């Protein structure tokens, strides 16, 4: 046996072969078998060809269907829902035009923006039959996406606060409230979401759950499930606080702070020193929140191309809280807004008032420029 | 029964010597006839490939028993199926392709035989020694040595055994083996070297059980 290639030993053997007749029989048998197998394979392929086309078509259709289903929630809204004003008053802003919201159903396919003035509140019924309450000086965008699997409603809270009472949506439907830094997905019935701004502190989102469960997702991307009575802030490092037993009743929106008694619609002109000497007591948290909502709402309206609404909110703030710290900012904003709107005479009056009230205010040079520009 | 002795010779030469003229088609013509479902394609394919198929199966399995014709038929069926599935890329000759399929069928039969623990079935005719040995004892020893080779071949890694058989028994070059198996020449060479080493280790007297990792 060769040590290098023992297999070569296999080639050395010889075999007795079959006789010619047996060999001929085998030849005929195997040749027939080859023909039969070849024919069967061809027949099978011919039979399976339509099935293959059918299977390919089915696979293609399934892929297309999956693609459509996958794409539908992220695409433009397919089917329009409607939202209806149940009580209160609100306005709808479409293409920069502010119009009162009537009782007729409003198509949300155009993704309308609903706003409430500081002295308004409204309750709306969404297409999902959920009740949406808008607090004063709030601004929300509505969006509804319909797919074959279900719908998804989104409330984009841009300013102010909303409260929702949501019926059972089913497993395939979804309703969520989105703020600039958080995502609150509904898994239960009643909760409220508030966008809070206390300059110079970082703005944040507050969520209070009254009944059922909601899923919140903050800046860190982590999701948390909030149960009934739980409170969450987006700036609280994900901490979940349990509300005290004497929590406000469910679905009751935090009321807009009642305006203090104002003796006259226009603030009495006083110098800053006088104002300091007769400084009012520090505002309560609810008053401060209301002031913030108004100022922020005005800024948002201005950025959204609604200067009239912004002016109205600034006037409300100045009128209600003439001595507040934020009134200083509101007057500056009002002066700038009037100038940008081309209402130079009113801008000059506003600048004059500002200089009287805050002779050393941070915007005094700007006010003086406005006055000198107005002077002939 | 007439018994003829077949002198072992490479399959290609045997094919040339014994090929019948009816029908005398080229490889491509045979493939076209099969695709056209020509009834003569069966005989043509048989005549073209029977020698290489039989050579491979006989050398690997080592006996012409009742199952031999079944193995030959099975090899031809596999050839037709693989041709029908268009696995034959026409980069090698049809006989080389057939030798690879026959080798595969034969190695599987060898493994099945090892699993079923039978050595010689009734009616099987073992191979004969090419030259008469002086005594019966040496003939028996030579037959046992061949049987041990086949036993270890059945236990070997299938891919290495395949390359080893195609090279050592069928005489295919490495490049041809690479084309037949659809692998690179380097891979074929590696399998051949490893296969040789593995078989030698298994055949060493120190490791009678052939425990090679």
Provide the descriptors you would attach to this structure in a database record:
heterodimer, A: 376 residues, alpha+beta, 9-stranded antiparallel β-sheet, 24% strand, B: 213 residues, mainly alpha, two-stranded antiparallel sheet, 9 helices
Give the N-to-C terminal Cα separation of chain A. 122 Å
Helix percentage range of chain B: 55-70%
Order of helices and strands of chain A: EHEEEEEEEEEEEEEEEEEEHHHHHH
Low-confidence stretches of chain B: 1-20, 119-123, 207-213
The spatial strand order of the largest sheet of chain A comes to 5-2-7-8-11-14-15-18-19
Characterize the main sheet of chain A.
Answer: 9 strands, antiparallel
Walk across the major sheet of chain B and give the strand order. Answer: 2-3
User: What structural class results from the helix and strand content of chain B?
Assistant: mainly alpha
Number of helices of chain A: 7
The main β sheet of chain B shows up as: 2 strands, antiparallel
Shape summary of chain B: globular
List the total number of helices of chain B.
9
Number of strands of chain B: 3
The proportion of strand residues of chain A reads 15-25%
Cα-based radius of gyration of chain B, to the nearest Å: 18 Å
* Class derived from helix and strand content of chain A: alpha+beta
Low-confidence runs of chain A: 74-80, 243-279
């Amino acid at each position: 046996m060769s040590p290098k290639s023992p297999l070569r030993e296999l080639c050395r053997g010889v075999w007795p072969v079959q006789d010619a007749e047996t060999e001929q029989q085998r030849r005929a048998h195997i040749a027939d078998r080859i023909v039969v197998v070849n024919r069967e394979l061809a027949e099978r392929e011919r039979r399976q060809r339509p099935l293959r086309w059918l299977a390919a078509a089915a696979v293609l259709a399934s892929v297309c269907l999956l693609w459509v289903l996958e794409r539908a929630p992220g695409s433009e809204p397919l089917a329009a829902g409607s939202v209806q004003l149940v009580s209160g008053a609100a306005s709808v802003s479409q293409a920069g035009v502010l119009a009162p919201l009537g009782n007729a159903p409003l198509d949300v396919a155009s993704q309308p923006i609903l706003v409430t003035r500081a002295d308004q509140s409204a309750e709306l019924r969404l297409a999902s039959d959920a009740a949406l309450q808008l607090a004063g000086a709030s601004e929300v965008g509505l969006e509804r996406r319909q797919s074959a699997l279900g719908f998804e409603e989104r409330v984009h809270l841009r300013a102010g606060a909303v409260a929702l009472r949501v019926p059972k949506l089913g497993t395939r439907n979804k309703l969520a409230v989105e703020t600039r830094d958080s995502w609150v997905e509904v898994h239960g019935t009643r909760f409220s979401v508030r966008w809070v701004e206390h300059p110079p502190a970082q703005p944040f989102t507050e969520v209070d759950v009254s009944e059922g469960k909601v899923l919140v997702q903050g800046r860190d991307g982590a999701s948390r499930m909030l149960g009934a009575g739980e409170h969450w802030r987006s700036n609280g490092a994900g901490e979940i606080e349990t509300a005290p037993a004497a929590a406000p009743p469910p679905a009751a929106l935090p009321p807009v702070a009642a305006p203090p008694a104002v003796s006259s619609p226009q603030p009495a002109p006083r110098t800053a020193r006088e104002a300091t000497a007769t400084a009012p007591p520090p505002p309560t948290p609810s008053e401060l929140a209301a002031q913030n909502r108004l100022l922020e709402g005005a800024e948002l309206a201005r950025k959204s191309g609604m200067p009239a609404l912004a002016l109205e909110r600034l006037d409300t703030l100045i009128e209600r809280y003439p001595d507040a710290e934020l009134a200083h900012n509101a007057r500056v904003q009002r002066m700038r807004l009037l100038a940008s709107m081309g209402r130079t005479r009113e801008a000059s009056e506003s600048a004059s008032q500002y200089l009287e009230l805050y002779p050393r205010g941070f915007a005094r040079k700007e006010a003086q420029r406005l006055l000198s520009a107005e002077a002939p | 029964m007439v018994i003829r002795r077949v002198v072992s010779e490479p399959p290609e030469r045997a094919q040339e010597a014994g090929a019948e003229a009816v029908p005398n088609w080229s490889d491509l013509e045979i493939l076209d006839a099969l695709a056209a479902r020509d009834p003569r394609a069966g005989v043509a394919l048989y005549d073209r490939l029977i020698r290489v198929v039989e050579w491979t199966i006989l050398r690997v399995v080592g006996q012409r028993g009742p199952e031999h014709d079944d193995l030959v038929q099975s090899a031809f069926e596999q050839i037709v199926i693989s041709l029908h599935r268009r696995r034959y890329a026409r980069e090698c000759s049809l006989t080389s392709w057939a030798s690879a399929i026959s080798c595969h069928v034969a190695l599987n039969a060898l493994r099945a035989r090892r699993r079923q623990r039978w050595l010689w079935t009734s009616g099987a005719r073992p191979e004969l020694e090419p030259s008469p040995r002086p005594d019966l004892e040496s003939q028996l020893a030579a037959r046992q040595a061949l049987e041990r080779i086949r036993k270890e071949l059945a236990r070997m890694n299938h891919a290495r055994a395949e390359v080893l058989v195609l090279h050592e028994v069928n005489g295919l070059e490495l490049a041809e083996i690479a084309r037949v198996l659809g692998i690179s020449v380097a891979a074929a060479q590696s399998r051949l070297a490893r296969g040789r080493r593995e078989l030698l280790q298994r055949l060493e007297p120190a490791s009678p059980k052939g425990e090679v990792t």
